[in-house]
Amino acid sequence: MTTVFKELPIITVSSDHNSEDFDCGEPARNVWLCNRALSNQRSDDTRTYVAAEGVEIFGFYALAVSSIVRDALPSSMRRNAPDPVSCVLLAQLGVDLRYQQHGIGRQLVLHAMAQAIRIAELAGCRLFAVSPSGQNLVPYYRRYGFVETQATPPLMTMHLQKVRATLAAVADTKAAHNRSDHR
Ligand SMILES: CC(C)(COP(=O)(O)OP(=O)(O)OC[C@H]1O[C@@H](n2cnc3c(N)ncnc32)[C@H](O)[C@@H]1OP(=O)(O)O)[C@@H](O)C(=O)NCCC(=O)NCCS
Questions:
Q1: DSSP string, 46-95
Q2: pTM higher than 0.90, yes or no?
């Protein structure tokens, strides 16, 4: 794993943040952050969270509520599932080019997972999903436990129960790390 940059506060995006200077290397994603994040927030279509210090955005992600056609899921996920199956969608993810490869993407994905659990606890929801932009992101998301589906456009997903287990494992590792630091 690359060296972690630092634990940044992750908060809801606001008009105080400087989204214009953010560049994750994908123009469409940068434009989305600049032009859509706040308006989508007002219309309740997505919620966007930024890893930021003051006005500077290091990275961001957006969540939406969605669903997946049951037949597109791997057979183990189809069992006893309604059609369609509800999901929390990681709709956007980006880290500024200057700060990539330092663990900020991981901090954002783990934060998104924790938010997905909160949503599921309030409203009930079965899956966490992401649409990997291009095949090159598939290995990145596999590392978190996402699996590919047959959905079009491509979608990867994981059970929220598995998300809970992942977050618990991360918390255990962190606690063990803190204990060894205090010895
Ligand atoms: C994908 C992205 C969010 C990752 O953010 P990041 O902060 O660089 O990621 P992290 O530092 O947490 O993780 C880095 C690890 O992921 C791996 N990784 C990064 N991009 C990868 C890719 N496309 N495929 C496979 N692994 C990848 C790195 O090799 C590194 O591995 P290591 O831990 O073994 O060293 C960032 O590269 C980005 O913003 N890309 C452009 C926008 C984009 O593609 N967004 C995703 C849309 S679905």
A1: -EEEEEEETTEEEEEEEEEEEEE-GGGS-HHHHTT--SSEEEEEEEEEEE
A2: yes
Residue nearest to atom 16 of ligand 1 (CA): 140
Atom 48 of ligand 1: nearest residue by CA position: 132
Distance, first Cα to last Cα, the chain: 24
Q: 132: CA distance to ligand 1 center in Å? A: 11
**CA atoms within 13 A of residue 3's CA, in its CB half-sphere:** 2
Crossing angle of the two packed helices 104-123 and 160-181, in degrees rounded to 10: 130
Total residues belonging to the chain:
183
Domains with residue ranges and CATH for the chain: 61-181 (3.40.630.30)
CB-ligand 1 contact for 62 (6 Å cutoff)? no
Neighbours of 111 (CB within 10 A): 18
Cβ burial 146-159 (10 Å sphere, 16+ → b, else e): bbbbebeebbbbbe
Band (pLDDT 50/70/90 cuts) for residue 180 is: confident
In three-state secondary structure terms, 18 is strand
pLDDT in the model for residue 2: 57
